[in-house]
Write a structure and sequence with these properties.
The protein has about 550 residues and is an alpha+beta fold. Helix content is about 40%, strand content about 15%. The protein is globular and about 75 Å long.
Length: about 550
């Protein structure tokens, strides 16, 4: 997607899934205030309590207070001292004190050489030096993850030199993981040299004597994706006029129960209010034992846009859901965790709830993303990361057959055009391109998106309904058109309001898999690129309602 031409460090980590340290690893969820040694001059306040206070200060962008709190915790040399030094360095950098931040990282490395936070500080040092315009040296980094982060920064600073480093890395016998992630960085280069090297890797010409079919296959996929996205403004991927379009349609009664006994002749498809012939109509049930392929469920925990309190409540409720029915889930399910430190998910869905609980326990961050900016800039950053993650998931899951239900557990992002219109030029063409690309990629992957707001009283209003109609041109585009709730509804999914019971919310979404219909039709050629076509499916039986995606973008 055309949000930015370079990969920010947070997004780079997200795409690669690098296992950076997390705040939750520094203090486990104890269900209440944690113990610890009392601090001099602060009777009754333990280092654990103050550590938590420092975390909240960072969440609120109160950098000076965070520095003060973490400084006191670090001086006690207790169990949170190493984490405190890292977060102190982070807050110092945000406060505009990069030299102090580097000093704090040096202290961490000196006093706690085995700390899990050293890798985090290494990433922070790379970011600080890059922002100062200092040359990044990937070869000097001993840790593989930090080497990749440095390589990503070098790609921003000096793409020609970065390409040479990647070439040398691929020829020097590094790990498969390192090589795969290096070509991912390469694929986001803007130069012809990057394109050429990626082609050499894909064809096996880079190292003819040591062929690597798996790496060549990944390079070929990245090369194709790069070529498609370069033309996205004029021809979105998968939107060719001759490609049949598949719709997943849920039909419900007045009481909201799914209806699965309809005949093909009872369906009518309206494309821009004109009847269109259906190539096929098939009844389906994702819950059926013989479903091939079965409906796949993706549970996404959004720590970028969700508060700490809601995240904690969500986790407890989700664990209860996964433990139901003897840890046996109705549908193959995978878990994805999204923070500004990374997007991490399972490669293969499972029906074993215990496997998902173990994955959640091993990877839980316990906080919304810490690496964030406040105000409008922060809203822009969080929307960008969220939409990039959605596009990435669509691209990844498009390689697997069948229908996918993506349950995005989050209040969403609320960047509005009105908030920016007096501050910066609004990139209407880019917004429209992103709308078209997301609509097309979700449709091509057969993803139905659901917006689940966790934790009690709902904060979602009906404002998003003003943007459900669809966007036909750049001049009618707004940031509001990219709200999570808008994208979910337009995909044929639901907006599930706030609740303390995530299991009930999930069940509301999964009911769409019990009985549904797969309709296929061929779109007519469009009069111009990215022509908006509104879709409506009507059912010739009283009292029934059909729900599917709202629209698609056709091409000449």
């Amino acid at each position: 997607m055309n949000f930015k031409q370079t990969i920010p460090a947070a997004l780079f980590v997200a795409m690669l899934g690098l296992p950076l340290a997390s705040l939750a690893q520094s203090y486990p969820d104890s269900g209440g205030r944690m113990g610890g040694i009392s601090l001099p001059g602060k009777p009754g306040i333990s280092d654990s309590d103050l550590y938590e206070d420092g975390v909240r200060a960072i969440n609120d962008g109160q950098w000076a207070k965070a520095i003060e709190d973490f400084t006191l915790v670090a001086k006690q040399h207790g169990g949170h001292a190493d984490g405190a030094l890292y977060w102190k360095a982070y807050a110092e950098n945000k406060q505009g004190l990069p030299s102090a931040a580097l000093d704090s990282c040096t202290q961490l490395q000196r006093d706690y050489p085995s700390s899990q936070w050293i890798e985090e500080c290494g990433a922070l040092e790379i970011e600080i030096r890059a922002n100062r315009g200092q040359p990044v040296q990937p070869a000097t980094e001993r840790d593989e993850n930090l080497k990749l982060l440095a390589l990503n920064e070098l790609m921003r600073q000096d793409e020609v030199r970065a390409i040479q480093v990647i070439r040398e890395l691929l020829l020097s016998g590094n790990s498969e993981n390192m090589s795969e992630k290096a070509i991912f960085i390469l694929a986001h280069g803007k130069s012809d040299q990057a394109q050429k090297l990626l082609g050499q890797i894909a064809s096996g010409q880079l190292d003819p004597l040591h062929q690597n079919p798996a790496l060549q296959s990944k390079a070929l996929a990245l090369l194709r994706d790069r070529n498609v996205k370069a033309e996205v403004a004029s021809q979105p991927a998968g939107a060719g006029s001759n490609d049949p379009i598949t719709l997943d349609v849920v039909v419900t009664s007045k009481s909201g129960l799914p209806v699965g006994d309809l005949n093909p002749e009872e369906f009518t498809l309206l494309d821009n209010k004109q009847p269109r012939s259906l190539v096929s109509v098939q009844a389906a049930s994702g819950m059926a034992a013989q479903a091939d392929p079965p409906v796949e469920v993706i549970l996404l925990i959004d720590a970028i846009n969700t508060s700490f309190e809601r995240i904690a409540s969500e986790r407890q409720s989700l664990e209860s859901y996964l433990a139901r029915n003897g840890n046996t889930l109705e549908l193959p399910t995978s878990l994805v965790l999204l923070t500004e430190q990374g997007i991490k998910g399972q490669e293969h869905p499972t029906r074993n709830g215990k496997v998902l609980m173990d994955y959640l326990e091993a990877n839980w961050t316990g906080l919304r993303a810490i690496h964030r900016t406040q105000g409008v800039e922060g809203e822009l950053e969080r929307e960008e990361l969220s939409l990039k993650a959605l596009d990435y998931l669509a691209e990844q899951t498009s390689r697997r057959p069948g229908r996918k239900l993506l349950l995005w557990m989050s209040p969403g992002w609320y960047l509005t055009t009105n908030a920016l219109i007096d501050r910066v030029p609004i990139p209407y063409q880019n917004i429209f391109t992103n709308i078209v690309t997301l609509s097309t990629s979700l449709r091509a992957a057969r993803i139905t998106l659901y917006s689940i707001e966790p934790g009690g009283t709902s904060g979602v209003t009906d404002y998003y309904r003003l943007y459900l109609k669809g966007v036909d041109s750049p001049k009618h585009s707004d940031y509001d058109d990219l709200f999570l709730q808008v994208l979910a509804t337009q995909s044929g999914g639901k907006v599930v309001p706030g609740s303390n019971d995530v299991a009930v919310q999930i069940d509301q979404c999964l009911s769409d898999a019990k009985a549904y219909y797969v309709l296929t039709f061929k779109p007519l050629p469009a009069a111009h690129p990215n022509e908006l076509h509104e879709i409506k499916v009507a059912v010739d039986r009283p009292g029934l309602t059909a729900r599917t995606r709202y629209s698609y973008y056709a091409q000449p």
